[in-house]
Amino acid sequence: MAKKNKQPLVVIFGRTNVGKSTLFNCLIEKHKALISDIEGTTRDSNIDEVNWQGHNFKLIDTGGIMDVALMRGPKLKSNDIDIKVQLQASEYLRKADLILFLVDAKAGLLPTDKEMVKEIKKIIDKTDKVILVANKADSPKIRRDIAEFNKLALGEPFAISAATGSGTGDLLDMIISKIKSYTKEEKNEDELKPIQVSIIGKPNVGKSSLVNAILGEERIIVSPIAHTTREPQDTLIDYKGQKINLIDTAGISRRGRQSARKSKVANTLEKHSILKSLSVLRKADIIVFMIDINEEMTQQDAKIIDEIFHQHVSLIIVANKWDLIEEKDTKAYTKKIYSQFPYAQWVPIQFVAAKTGSKVKKVLDNVLEIAAARKIEIAPNALNKFLSRIVKKHRPVKSSGNKHPHIYELKQVRVDPPKFSIRIGGRDTIHDSYVGYIENRLREKFGFIGTPIHIEVEKNRDVHGKADERVVNQGKA
Fold first, then answer.
1. Residue 109: which residues within 8 A CB-CB, separation 6 or more?
2. At 314, phi and psi to the nearest 5?
3. pLDDT at residue 162 is higher than 50
4. Angle formed by the axes of helices 266-277 and 299-310, to 10°?
5. For residues 149 and 472, what is the distance between their CA atoms, to the nearest angstrom?
6. By C-alpha distance, which of 206, 202, 289, 190 is closest to 245?
7. Phi then psi dihedrals of residue 366, to 5 deg
8. pLDDT at residue 394 greater than cutoff 60
9. Entry pTM
10. What is the 3-state secondary structure (H, E, C) of the chain?
11. Cβ neighbours of residue 101 closer than 8 Å, sequence gap 6 or more
12. What torsion do the CA atoms of 222, 226, 232, 238 make, to the nearest 10 degrees?
């Protein structure tokens, strides 16, 4: 939303000792903020004005976050000043037109960074208001290593050195381009593309109860869009500034499958029946697949999930009726579910009680996190370094012949959902297990939670100029 008749607000935010005050002084071209290696040196926020290329904005250097929990509210054992610093930082984040989330490139990705990103996502409307800035990138080696920060799902990290000023001019260019787009005019909310989320599962697993629990939060309602009773029911909501279109579908029953078995072409019709029941996959970005945690997984559940993977749709497994479980051991139940779907280890699982609304918001938080993961874009140089490292650890495996394949290139060819291409020799072959190995390493390095990764294998042209042959991996690891 545009902020008219006042300067855009840009907030520097991050844990202690990442160089926030150094960056603040560099951008305002003054030595205003006190700089020290002692944690918590910046107790109050520093504020000044920046002028760049004829554009002005207000810059705020927030106090370093030493305890993420304090951002959520006062704790009895916490120092009053610490509480004030953390709550003031939270308030500035809410008011910000743009946030510079600062991390330490030398120290690498730390658990505190991940926790702070979670808190940011709870406070702000959308993550495209955040620029991920990797400070202290003082050497080419350090700059190459910052790709691990892609796991934060805040876009490609922007490498700078606040101490030397390296990269800060380009950072200012990016800041101006961002705040110009936010402050040019008020955006029409209807123009924002909703995340399409389909809720599927067998009858009586609690799909409608989940939707009702979500809609029970009146403040997130935008409008209901009703269709005929034969069609899925769409409901458009707004959650943390992001529109989500919830598609509540009819249950996938066993009866349809039994009827298919009686047909002369039972196997074909059974598959077509499932495809028809899952027709919403064609319009969905993310599937919420609901199960009753009190019941055993079935072959039908496995077929549904398998079809979801083949359609390259992102997935969340929601285990409902958790309130009926006496011994609530989430680790044990998570392990049990993954044992049924060993190729779906990257799928988040949420245990909820839809009737009471317990943990329902966690599902929506997962939706936002996965939607961001679908849009992760990895720079070519980061992928080249990544490929070199994984090939050294595990040599490419052939699927036939006597020669180990040589991988010439790994590149990202699409986002939302992510798609990659690997190029091998014209006469080489590569085993599916090694393609799965590449997928698993991509997840470890860059994230992609809840999202299938599509990998295509291309072959170099042979000496006669024959067109490339292509093999497609369906995304199972």
1. 103, 148, 149, 151, 152
2. -70, 160
3. yes
4. 70
5. 28
6. 190
7. -60, -40
8. yes
9. 0.56
10. CCCCCCCCEEEEECECCCCHHHHHHHHHCCCCCCCCCCCCCCCCCEEEEEEECCEEEEEEECCCECCHHHHHCCCCCCCHHHHHHHHHHHHHHHHCCEEEEEEECCCCCCHHHHHHHHHHHHHCCCHHHEEEEEECCCCHHHHHHHHHHHHHCCCCCEECECCCCECHHHHHHHHHHHHHHHHCCCCCHHHCCCEEEEEECCCCCCHHHHHHHHHCCHHHEEEEECCCCCCCEEEEEEECCEEEEEEECCCCCHHHHHHHHCCCCHHHHHHHHHHHHCHHHHCCCEEEEEEECCCCCCHHHHHHHHHHHHCCCEEEEEEECHHHCCCCCHHHHHHHHHHHCHHHCCCCEEECECCCCECHHHHHHHHHHHHHHHCCCCCHHHHHHHHHHHHHHCCCCCCCCCCCCCEEEEEEEECCCCEEEEEECCCCCCCHHHHHHHHHHHHHHHCCCCCCCEEEEEECCCCCCCCCCEEEECCCC
11. 13, 14, 116, 117, 120, 130, 131, 132, 133, 152, 154
12. 0
Could you tell me how many residues make up the chain? 477
User: Checking DSSP bridges between strand 98-104 and strand 221-225, what pairing results, if any?
Assistant: unpaired
CA-CA-CA-CA torsion for 212, 216, 220, 222, nearest 10 degrees?
Answer: 60
Closest CA to 178 of 109, 243, 126: 126
**What residue type is 169 in one-letter code?**
G
Residue owning tokens 């860059």: 446
227 vs 86, which has greater pLDDT? 86
Q: Which two tokens stand for residue 66?
A: 């030493």
Q: How far apart are CA 294 and CA 95, in angstroms?
A: 44
**Residue 398 has which token pair?**
């052939």
Q: How many CB atoms lie within 10 A of CB 231?
A: 13
Contact 370, 449 (CB under 8 A): yes
Find the angle CA(214)-CA(215)-CA(216) to the nearest 5 degrees.
90
Which tokens hold the place of 45?
Answer: 């926020």
pLDDT at residue 210 tops 70? yes
- The neighbouring-strand residues paired with 49 are 58
Q: What single-letter amino acid sits at 401?
A: G
Q: Integer distance in angstroms from the first to the last C-alpha of the chain?
A: 42
Question: At which residue do the structure tokens 């579908």 appear?
Answer: 249
Give the tens place of pLDDT for each residue, 403-426: 889 999 999 999 988 999 999 998
